[in-house]
Amino acid sequence: MNDKAQALIHVVEDDVNVAGLIIATLERFGYQHAVFPSGGEFLRQLRVQSPDLAILDLGLPDMDGMDVLQQLRKRHRFGLLIATGRVDTHDRVLGLELGADDYVVKPFEPRELIARVRSILRRYQPEPQPADLALRVAHFAGWRFEHASHRLISPEGIEDTLSLAESQLLSAFLERPNQVLSREQLLSGRDVSALDRSIDLRVSRLRKRFEQGGHSGKFIKTVYGAGYLLATPVSWS
Predict the structure, then answer these.
(1) Which domains, and CATH codes, for the chain?
(2) What pTM, to 2 d.p., does this model score?
């Protein structure tokens, strides 16, 4: 996706007025779009076509938006922006923990929506990499991480596939082990200010990946007031 006009955005929203506002905003800035008034219709469409980004309402008529979010992150990798009228901070934090890239609270200004859409789309654009970098495999604390496929393999050989955000975060740690990394460094210097408030949640979620199966994720350490540190040697092959 090299051009915003090529970006396809799915709008999952049952409120006709809100959906109309989002559509008008997307059209004004040159984005393609498709609208789904229910979670079920959206999930069925994903069997044949995935968008570059989805704008997801949490209050859908047929299922809770959190359920839709959980199903998405198990099977798909594309940008996800929550659009919610819920004022409870817990819901927004939970959405980020479940894998949303950002959220916007209704009512919102069109330019705020577009700013967040652009930020997420930039994050999902593939970065040009030398062939030898893309094919590298990291070995650390008995684990193996395959950079190209985002596969994380446990000491017992159990495979798991990380989300794009988790893969980028782990790669930042593995590139600079035993160094304190600030939140800005963990975001790889990208223009992703919308993610700043959720980097702690992403680190927590990455730790939980390592804790599955009775393992410890304690080698990702919090350095209070400074950032985070991967406290284990790393070798590359």
Answers:
(1) 4-124 (3.40.50.2300), 131-236 (1.10.10.10)
(2) 0.62
